[in-house]
Amino acid sequence: MFRWSGAALDNLKLVSNGQWYLSRSLEMIQHCNCSALVEDGALINQTQTMSPVRCRQNSTHNPTAAGLSMTLGIVSNIIALIILAKAYARLRKRSKATFLLFASCLVATDLAGHVIPGALVLRLYTDGGFCNHPDATCHFLGGSMVFFGLCPLFLGCGMAVERCMGVTRPLLHARVVCTARTKVVLVMIWLLALTVALLPFFHLGTYTYQYPWTWCFIKVLDKTGMTDVLFVLLFSGLGLASLAVALICNTISVMTLVIARLRRKKCNRRSAKSHDIEMVTQLVGIMVTSCICWSPLLIFGLMSVTSSYSGSVGNDLKTYRTLMVTGVRLASWNQILDPWVYILLRRAVLRKIYRLTTGRSDLKGSTFRRWEISSFQNSLKNAINLN
């Protein structure tokens, strides 16, 4: 029988120990590599979670329509702003100056509200949209939409109140309303809208990406809380209240002018009111435009957030999303249509329309002729003399 020598046994032990150490080293290296791969995978997953997730399924949206709409809005607002600025410079010391200042600020706000949110939405359209958690871009876009949404409604309400006072109480209007006070009211309106827009940064309400993930607005669907409900109630309540006040004031102004027209009073007060027809006509145009464009979004927002909070959305989630998209698209047209109210509903344009529709070359005996005869300066003098 073969016997191992002592030296051979020692060599065999060394070889066995070496193989054990070698295998142990390979296991340690493999373990380190696996740990590194796991850590790298976790880091990649964390990076993907933190980075914006693009919703490429919505990349079929064509940004051309959004770009054309944005261009049309910019051109329309610039034209209206030039017209109003020239009229304000020409009538700065007359009773129409306050109305023109309100109107100029409204068009300037519409222009900014069309450019700033429009550029961000156009970028999201180009990128295909995002469906991750809200980021800085989403918060800025949502705040911009709330701010530039409330400002036109507040300004339209202020214009309606100012004209109602001018038509029904011209003497009080001449004493109370002035350019300096009007500027203070404008600043207060902008600050109020800005305060409401900043409330989500103080944990009252939330801005989030909205379907089809190319715009951000108040969170009205998908796990809404009480703060979201309160924020939507505040936003929609202020907007609807502004429209209601404007409707009441404009109705009073129109009825006052119609009654004065029917009575045919031949006195100074009648001539003082004749120039209000143009301004009230423009206000009615603004009010109708705002009601058509903004009422759906304000109402759909209330419907969506109340249904989501009560848990009654169910299988109607797609319907509510479609309503919100329809509402915001209608609201975006308000900033395009508002300037055309001032462009088209002017005496110069209405005179041309009157000539084309009636075939009359002169305006003798017409309402437009009385508009030309009436003077803002004489109306103000009459109001001062009556005091």
How is this structure best described in words?
With 387 residues, the chain is mostly helical. It has 13 helices and 2 strands. It has helices spanning 6-50, 63-90, 97-127, 136-168, 170-176, 179-197, 226-263, 268-274, 276-310, 317-344, 347-358, 367-373, 376-386, and strands at residues 207-210, 215-218. The chain has a two-stranded antiparallel sheet.
Keywords:
mainly alpha; two-stranded antiparallel sheet; disordered N terminus
Give me the secondary-structure topology.
Elements: H1 6-50, H2 63-90, H3 97-127, H4 136-168, H5 170-176, H6 179-197, E1 207-210, E2 215-218, H7 226-263, H8 268-274, H9 276-310, H10 317-344, H11 347-358, H12 367-373, H13 376-386
Antiparallel strand pairs: 1-2
